[in-house]
């Protein structure tokens, strides 16, 4: 092997090692960014889990005290208004005039989902 061929091979290897070193630097930068994002997501996840636990505890305590957190819809409001105007809203006498309180209507109004 001639000296020139050996020198060319070493130069070629040096060039490839330089390219690999550059790729290694790029991968190192990407790995650093991924580690930072992973840490940020872990912290965010921790905070969200704490918040979820607090929300569940508040919901449980509200349910234990008998308070409902659900907001009735428009249909419920319309039925409650009909009942207040003196009409039955129960399936037994729906729409007929009401003179006294009806247990079926009241149970429907107090029904929880």
UniProtKB/TrEMBL annotation:
GO terms for cellular component: bacterial nucleoid. Residues 54-73 are annotated as: Disordered. One of its GO terms (biological process) is negative regulation of DNA replication. It is found in: Cytoplasm, Nucleoid. GO terms for molecular function: zinc ion binding. Binds 1 zinc ion per subunit. Zn(2+) binds at residues 88, 90, 102, 105. Its cofactor is Zn(2+). Homotetramer. Interacts with both DnaA and DnaN, acting as a bridge between these two proteins. Involved in control of chromosome replication initiation. Inhibits the cooperative binding of DnaA to the oriC region, thus negatively regulating initiation of chromosome replication. Inhibits the ability of DnaA-ATP to form a helix on DNA; does not disassemble preformed DnaA-DNA helices. Decreases the residence time of DnaA on the chromosome at its binding sites (oriC, replication forks and promoter-binding sites). Tethers DnaA to the replication machinery via the DNA polymerase beta sliding clamp subunit (dnaN). This is Replication initiation control protein YabA. The lineage of its organism: Bacteria, Bacillati, Bacillota, Bacilli, Bacillales. The gene is yabA.
